[in-house]
Design a protein that fits this description.
Blueprint (H helix, E strand, L loop, with lengths): L8 H8 L7 E2 L13 H7 L13 H11 L6 E4 L2 H12 L3 E6 L3 H9 L3 E6 L10 H5 L7 E5 L11 H10 L4 E5 L9 H4 L9 E6 L12 E4 L2 H8 L9 H14 L4 H22 L4 E3 L6 E6 L5 H10 L2 E2 L1 E2 L10 E5 L3 H14 L2
Parallel strand pairs: 1-11, 3-4, 3-5, 5-6, 6-7
Antiparallel strand pairs: 2-8, 7-8, 9-10, 10-13, 12-13
Helix pairs in contact: 3-10, 4-5, 11-13
Length: 358
């Protein structure tokens, strides 16, 4: 099922004999500014909601999400994180053959494998800095009925413009496209790139609240698609799949955080600045090659001295957890991903890496 994710602080802490709270988790790609302001206090004040069942179909939350994005309610579902939708999608759509644009998040392939669906990969090339070419992708569409695209992509950080994606999707109306926008809110290009409002019948968008708002433990995500596809999903939609705390958190975030885009703008500006500083710092380390990124993380190739597992082990002894990317299909054991944290932590980790490869 899960072949390896970031955020495994518990095993690392046990192996080096410290508390999980002592680990700097740079494998976990949530908001470097932390949990959205005011949310913790709001949840504390409303903990009594766990005494009741959540709204069975999250109808109120769906309405709030649709209203915020100015789309019809019948085009939205709320779920227990985007993972619920990824693993349900192959069954709902009766996928026969899928194309996954990689190297990318393992769960797309795992979901297809779980349902015994044939899938193939289009791999963006390292020589092109892992930036996928739309024409090259479309050349792989023979016999494919569904295409998975993460935008911006995890772990490479590459971004395809919304204009290019819409042209591609309109050119192939009989192919269904799943676009994972989990990391798109971290980019300053969010408004012109998101496809939430595109309204294309062959496009399914998944939107995560876990990453941008720093709440992966609550599990909250949304699926946006045509009303026909939404109805197909509802046939296998489990009651109460979004818990009470996640539902009220979603309402709070939509009504008090997203209603005023200061949090997003502040996050985007921070990510752009810190990502630039980290990239510049690591470029001066001859053994490391950072790749251009539009996300809140950077993919790095280790050119000599160590492989990914060895470097991650060394950093773990310093209580820093990096993401070993060797289990991403299309990447070798020479790649790691570093997710941004505070300015002080980012600088400290850069210093430590320079020291290791001095």
């Amino acid at each position: 099922m899960i072949r390896g994710h970031g955020g495994n602080i518990y095993d690392i802490a046990q192996s080096i004999g410290c508390s999980p709270n002592d680990i700097i988790d740079m494998s976990n790609n949530t908001n470097p500014l932390g949990i959205a302001p005011g949310l913790i206090e709001y949840l504390k004040e409303n903990l009594v909601v766990i005494n009741n069942h959540p709204e069975v179909d999250s109808k109120g939350l769906v309405k709030a999400f649709a209203s915020h994005h100015k789309i019809s309610e019948d085009r939205v579902l709320a779920g227990n994180g985007t993972t619920q939708f990824i693993y349900t999608l192959p069954l709902i759509l009766k996928i026969k053959k899928a194309l996954i644009v990689g190297p990318t998040y393992a769960d797309y392939g795992d979901a297809c494998q779980m349902h015994e669906i044939d899938c193939q990969y289009f791999m963006a090339r390292e020589a092109e800095l892992f930036q996928p070419n739309i024409m090259d992708i479309s050349a792989c569409f023979s016999d494919v009925d569904t295409v998975f695209i993460c935008n911006p992509n995890n772990p490479t950080g590459s971004l395809i413009t919304g204009t290019d994606l819409v042209k591609l999707f309109e050119a192939y109306p009989k192919i269904r496209f799943l676009v994972d926008e989990s990391y798109l809110p971290f980019t300053e290009e969010y408004d012109e790139t998101t496809l939430i409002q595109a309204g294309l019948s062959n496009v399914i968008v998944i939107n995560s609240f876990s990453k941008i708002f720093g709440i992966p433990g609550l599990r909250l995500g949304f699926l946006i698609a045509s009303s026909e596809i939404i109805e197909q999903f509802k046939r296998l939609y489990q009651p109460w799949c979004v818990n009470s705390l996640a539902q009220i958190a979603g309402h709070f975030l939509l009504e008090h955080v997203l209603a005023d885009d200061n949090f997003l703008k502040k996050t985007q500006a921070f990510v752009v600045n810190e990502r630039h500083l980290l990239e510049v710092s690591l470029k001066n380390t001859k053994s490391l090659k950072p790749f251009p990124s539009m996300a809140s993380f950077i993919l790095i190739k280790i050119k000599k001295d160590f492989n990914a597992a060895q470097l991650c082990s060394i950093m773990a002894k310093h209580r820093v957890l990096l993401r070993d990317c060797s289990n991403f299909t299309g990447l070798s054991d020479r790649f790691v991903r570093i997710s941004l944290k505070s300015s002080e932590i980012n600088a400290m980790v850069a210093d430590k890496l320079r020291e290791i490869f001095a």
